[in-house]
Design goal:
about 130 residues, alpha+beta, seven-stranded mixed sheet
Length: about 130
């Protein structure tokens, strides 16, 4: 069972903005950088970075690997696709935190629910209202 990370989506108002930002970064070959490589990096193999938006876990990005970035920083390489998850309350924090597999929310849109066909902005608004 992989370990996951959580991170606040800073300066993001809607899920579609986060999706666009990640797609732009991936197209440019940019990785997310952090000051230090996570100590439990070996446990993160197969894990995801879960995004916190408005005090809720709303989406995840698969972690593809880790590397070095300029300035002695660590790079976290993320998959290009943002996967929406069942919204779950989560306090905001600085940097990243670990999330155990048992505590991770399930992906949204499984088993023919049709939720994965909704526009990301509408899903964000439904999550804010507590309807998803």
């Amino acid at each position: 069972m992989p370990l996951h990370l959580t991170k606040v989506a800073f300066a993001i108002d809607h899920v579609d903005q986060l999706s666009e930002r990640l797609a732009t970064r991936h197209a440019a070959g940019e990785a997310m950088t952090t000051r230090y490589l996570p100590k439990r990096v070996a446990e993160l193999d197969g894990g995801s970075l879960f995004w916190i938006l408005k005090h809720r876990l709303v989406a995840r990005s698969p972690i593809l690997g880790f590397g070095e970035a300029e300035g002695g920083r660590a790079a976290i390489h993320l998959g290009p696709r943002l996967i929406l998850v069942e919204a779950r309350p989560k306090r905001a924090h600085q940097g990243w935190r670990y999330l155990e597999e048992a505590d991770a929310p399930a992906d949204l849109g499984g088993a023919g629910s049709g939720a994965d066909e909704l526009p990301p902005r509408l899903i964000g608004e439904l999550v804010a209202l507590g309807l998803l």
